[in-house]
Amino acid sequence: MTETEPLVYDVVVIGAGPVGENVADRTRAAGLTTAIVESELVGGECSYWACMPSKALLRPVIAQADARHTPGLSHAVSGPLDAAAVLTNRDGFTSHWKDDGQVGWVEGIGADLYRGQGRLAGPRTVEVTGAGGERRVLTARHAVAVCTGTRAALPGLPGLDAVRPWTSREATSAQSVPGRLVVVGGGVVAVEMATAWQALGSRVTVLVRGAGLLERMEPFAGELVAEALAGAGADLRTGTSVKSVSRENGTVVAVTDSGDRIEADEILFATGRAPRTEDIGLDTVGLKPGSWLEVDDSLRVTGHEWLYAVGDVNHRALLTHQGKYQARIAGAAIAARAANTPGLESGPWGAHAATADHCAVPQVVFTDPEAASVGLTLAEAEQAGHRVRAVDVDLASVAGASLYREGYQGRARMIVDLEDEIVRGVTFVGPGVGELVHSATVVVAGQVPVSRLWHAVPPYPTISEVWLRLLESYRDS
């Protein structure tokens, strides 16, 4: 084992996923010397085992469904998907799990990349242990940013390791289609992967402990997605828990709390995420290993003026785009503090405050139908003490929707605050609605009054005309 003299940087970033990359990009743009440490592939979970491969698997599924519901085209897509071609295309989107391009990007912004396990070793100090045991010590003049993300959280079932279950990583990188797949969970990963693998040829069984799918969204979102999964042939069982799981002669056997025995080739547990902080030296700075890191709106860890926690690791919003947003905020805050900039803009909607985390987080679930939302649900708004009204519209009533897909089914909901007549939240469910959510995000983040929205004219005939239907329903109800 070798160790060199400490290397001094203005900023040290632990984790080179999209969040860590964006922190480094912003600090380098401000002229701060920056080191970035990565123990796996540069580009992180999103590039290789989450956002990119999952959407590459799902895009052919959605395109096929759209074509099958388009008069004059449906006869041309009557056969099954070419699973081998879909998987090959997915491999291309992950760069075949090689990070050369991402490494080139890091080098291009002028940051120094260190491969190995990064661990805090006291205030402003990061120790990097390489694959061969070599050690480097990096010290930061101004800030250390922890951007290590999350990992799949598996339940404590006896013998689970021996079963070799799928997590989101295996589900997005598998090289063949399992004949039978059990999916445990009812959240985003569960429904997206059930949608993809069912369409690629698996016989999918979805086991949901709760009463329905996508329970953090409006209830109708999970209901419409559940109907579609069942219509595609998936076996969906709610109110069901797995009590034991084993692998017998290569076959997975899952036993439910009702005593049902389900056999499959693979089993995917999509039952939550845990912070990747168990082995990054948190104890050396008085923090608990394995914990989520509490931060203020500038993403600075509570009680540590030099330490930042950005992205999933702070548990504010476990979404890549939201983590990148936080990274831009954190990078700006680090640069401003390094320059002793007076009057840090840390108030709501300031340049150094991640205000959107509290009230304007957008999300798209890429199932068929898609589910997209931003801001508060009706239940969340009422729980927060807002006096609100929910306005619902059948998306099939919009001309653009009927053109998009024959027999279109979908729904939209707008949550209006009755005190100041601004929109607190919006949810869309239906084919193609993922492209609507940014307009809703602008409305919610911009706190646009309903009276002004009347002057934002949606083009005809597009699905975005749903905005006019929502305003009319609010006016007339």
Summarize the structure in words.
- It is built from 16 helices and 21 strands.
- It is α/β, with parallel strands linked by helices.
- It folds into three domains: 7-43 and 99-151 and 275-356, FAD/NAD(P)-binding domain (3-Layer(bba) Sandwich); 160-272, FAD/NAD(P)-binding domain (3-Layer(bba) Sandwich), CATH 3.50.50; 369-476, Enolase-like, domain 1.
- The strands form five sheets. Strands 1, 2, 3, 4, 5, 6 and 16 form a seven-stranded mixed beta sheet that branches. It has a five-stranded antiparallel beta sheet with strand order 17-18-21-20-19, sandwiched between helices.
- The longest helix is centred in the C-terminal third of the chain and has 19 residues, at 320-338.
- It is globular and about 70 Å long.
- The termini are far apart.
- The relative contact order is 0.12.
CATH architecture heading of the largest domain? 3-Layer(bba) Sandwich
Report strand %: 15-25%
In the CATH scheme, the class of the largest domain would be Alpha Beta
Mean pLDDT: 96
Q: For the terminal residues, how far apart are their CA atoms?
A: 73 Å
Roughly how many Å is the radius of gyration?
Answer: 24 Å
Low-pLDDT windows of residues: none
Helix content: 25-40%
Q: What is the third-level CATH name, the topology of the largest domain?
A: FAD/NAD(P)-binding domain
